[in-house]
Fold:
Amino acid sequence: MSILERPARNRRIYLLLIAIVILTGTSYPKYSDLLPMFINQYAGSTLWALLIFLVTRYLFISTTTFKIALFSVVIIALIESTKFYQAGWFEVVRRSYIGGMIFRHDLVTTDLYAFAGGILLGILLELIVFNIMRH
Structure:
């Protein structure tokens, strides 16, 4: 299977993967002292990008993996561009727990590598899961 093919997909699997990523993303900070510094530094951004990929896939289940990856990059770029928007009401939203997780607080260029890693992880997960399901 290539990233340009459209294999049969199951939304329940993506829902399960989304739940696992959310649980991992919200619980890994509790164990941050046990993790290597590199993982601590980039795990949140990588998981966030993976979540964007999985949610996009869930919503557009029959689209090719390549298009889902591109669409995920666009979504991430749009969300990251909100860092330049400084309206008072939007800052209140960003300071909330959910708003901070979605819109994040600062723009760090090294996060771009983590975002790419999260999307690549999504592509790999998809290739692995659906190759296993085909056999």
Observations:
- The mean pLDDT is 84.
- Residues 81 and 111 are 13 Å apart (CA to CA).
- The radius of gyration is 16 Å.
